[in-house]
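Lecture notes, unit on binding sites. The following record was shown on slide 14. It pairs a sequence with cobalt (II) ion.
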Amino acid sequence: MHKIGRNDLCWCGSGKKYKLCHAVFDDKLAQLKAKGEQVPSHTLLKTKEQLEGIRKAGKLNTEILDMVAEKIHAGMSTEEINTLVHEYTIAHGGIPAPLNYCGFPKSVCTSINDVICHGIPSADDVLQDGDIINVDVTTILDGYYADASRMFCIGKVSEDAKKLVEVTKEAVDLALAATKPWGHLGDIGEVISKHVYAHGYTVLHDIGGHGVGNGFHEDPYVCHIGKKGSGMLLVPGMVFTIEPMVNMGEEDFYQDAENGWTIYTEDGSLSAQWEYTVAITEDGVEIITH
Ligand code: MF3
Ligand code: CO
Ligand code: CO
């Protein structure tokens, strides 16, 4: 933690003197750190102004997913989903974060059936009756980021597929209920992995959630497998995603060698994912986008 005088302006940008703002909060963090807790650095704690901006990005991001939910249907290509997301985002003053991110070629990720994540929209991929698809939307608005994804069941899907989609959503909702200020990241991983394993599914260990808001992928890494009470402390001002990828079969995956992005289940089994961006507040957790 950097040195700051008690009469200096607070690091949070409130315009108040430090001693009247985050001084007590920082003392608490320092004490917890001395006890061996892993505490986030100030850079991971959003200021009021940043949080306000992230909320606006979140609102637009949710609107985009709602729009996709209305329009998605069998016979539609994932390229058409990309066009919808791209145009809606731009028309509302946003920027689709995936486009050109580390060379990603499209404005949204569309991951069908055994695609775990990072599916690239294409005119050749046409939604079929019985498919399950994850649409992952990340929006930049006025420089702030919000990230969420949902599953969509196309037409009549098998009972097994429907169950996978439901259990994955339940895992995220259980994680939300377990996410509390002064709790730990491991609380989230424990709740998710327990729920997933209880249904005979697996959850990816090596691809997970992340801090978000001032950038696309920030610290901390949010692992969806964990132990209650372990990992980084959850502190008011943190903003991160919860986004478990749940496979019906084994956890193993591989990356598409040609495009360098798309992640598939090794055994060809179905995979589902839901993603929320959340903020830790003084008294709970706020959903930024879902
Ligand atoms: N939206 C994804 C996530 O949840 C990241 C996609 S990166 C991209 O973290 F480049 F593929 F868009
Ligand atoms: Co994410
Ligand atoms: Co995402």
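Take-home: The pocket of cobalt (II) ion (ligand 2) is lined by residues 147, 210, 241, 243, 275 (CB under 6 Å).
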